[in-house]
Amino acid sequence: MSPVNRVNRRQFISSSGVAALAVGKGSTAFGAPATSATKPVLMKLGCQSAPTNDEHLKYLARYGVKNICGYPGGEEGRSNDPNWATVDELSRMKDLATKNGIEIECVGPPLLTSSYIDNEKHPAIMLAQSPERDRDIEAIQTLIKNCAQVGLPSIKYNMSILGVLRTGRTPGRGDASYSKWNLAEAHPKTPLTIAGHVDADMFWERITYFLDRVIPVAKEYKIRMACHPQDPGVPPEGYQGVDRVLGTVDGLKKFVAIQESEYHGLNFCQGTVSEMLADPGTQIYDVIRYFGTRKKIFNVHFRNIRGHRNDFVEVYPDEGDVDLVKAIHVYREVGYPYMLMPDHVPVAKNDPEGLQSFAFCYGYIRGLIQSLG
After folding, report:
1. Is 217 helix (H, G, I), strand (E, B) or coil?
2. By CB distance 3.0 to 4.6 Å, which of 196, 280, 298, 346 could disulfide with 274?
């Protein structure tokens, strides 16, 4: 590697403005607790973008992404068949990643996605439709067993009815545009989804029904199950008739306590959790500590927002209200050992798939990790 391309940590710290952070009592120049500097750096740059094919894997490798969430099942990274992920299919995906110098840290199934329930191909679990939901749960159980056989350690999933709610886009820096959510501007197309009214008790029943049947299998086969929070949170009275019980920090605390297992935890979307808070710039760090010290964070969507609960935009990692330098020190402090992944990146007319924005985020996250020493 030439001197021009070699990462100089001191130069990175200076150019990123880290050195200008205020140094308070008990803090380092990074604005993080001094004790974090004594902890080893275990976290890795990762990505969950699809598809998991040779072209996209080479794109990831180009930017130093060596750990990913993989999607078996063809070019689209999805399948209409919930039992698609055979041992052979998972092995082919893993081998293809290995040939590109990439390790698959978790798997994304076509069941329990973040899609809107009216558009979901496999809605039975979230609609509490038996016997269909038992069939789909059995498919997840089979996936757990197959991942264990192939050596894929984690599965990510969602327990959502409303999908990802947004109210459009807003101009960002340069020619980029940012996704936004403003509750006051939100007008659902229909009063209810096909799920009808789903209050908190009904939602918790569906969650518990799933966890009671899946987490014991995950524990037996030592596969971490990482659930994404509901994005974004909505008022206590709900939205489109649905109470989003995983749209608050208290709801996430209740969720991880339903099954006492080291294989039951969170796909900790830092952006989504920030969206739950009145003041994410001051509150997010203690939320990371709560779940991180309990070893309930299985992967991280390391993204930033500007705003707060009910009114925010999703921005580049270096311009939001959350200090990501401080945040990464908190992940180090709690001994977080898995992936930090970009997510919901800005887009531009000449970058409609966000590949340039993802590349920017890879470099930013990689630099932050390397700056930890």
Report:
1. helix
2. 280
Residue 353 CB contacts under 8 Å (≥ 6 apart), including other chains: 347
Please return the burial class of 86, using the count of CB atoms within 10 Å of its CB with bins 0-12, 13-18 and 19+.
middle
Q: Give per-residue pLDDT as tens, 133-173.
A: 999 999 999 999 999 999 999 999 999 999 999 999 999 99
Nearest to 366 by CA among 315, 324, 334, 310: 324
CA distance 284 to 301: 13
Residues 86 and 152: their CA atoms lie apart, in Å, by: 13
- Amino acid, res. 266: L
CB neighbours of 249 closer than 8 A, spacing ≥ 6?
273, 276, 277, 287, 290
Neighbours of 24 (CB within 10 A): 8
- Asked whether 210 and 217 are in contact (CB, 8 A), the reply is no
Q: How far apart are CA 117 and CA 146, in angstroms?
A: 27
| pTM for this prediction | 0.89
Structure tokens at 70: 């993989």
303, 317 Cβ separation under 8 angstroms: yes
Question: Contacts for 2-10 with beta carbons within 8 Å, 24 or more apart?
Answer: 7/367, 7/370, 9/370, 9/371, 9/373
What confidence category does residue 37 fall into, taking pLDDT thresholds of 50, 70 and 90? low
Report helix, strand or coil for 107: strand
How far does Cα 46 stand from its chain's mean position?
A: 11
